Amino acid sequence: MHTRRLRQSTVNLAILVSLALALVGCGGSTPDAPQSTNTTGTQPSGPSLTGQDIGQAATATRAIFDRLLAESGTPFSGWVILNDLGTSAQAVTQNELVGRLAHALKTDETPVRAALAELVRQDLISQAPGTTINPVLSLTPAGTIRFQQVQDGIKHIAQRLYRDLPPEDLATAHRVLATVTERANAELAR
Question: pTM surpassing 0.90?
Answer without folding.
Answer: no
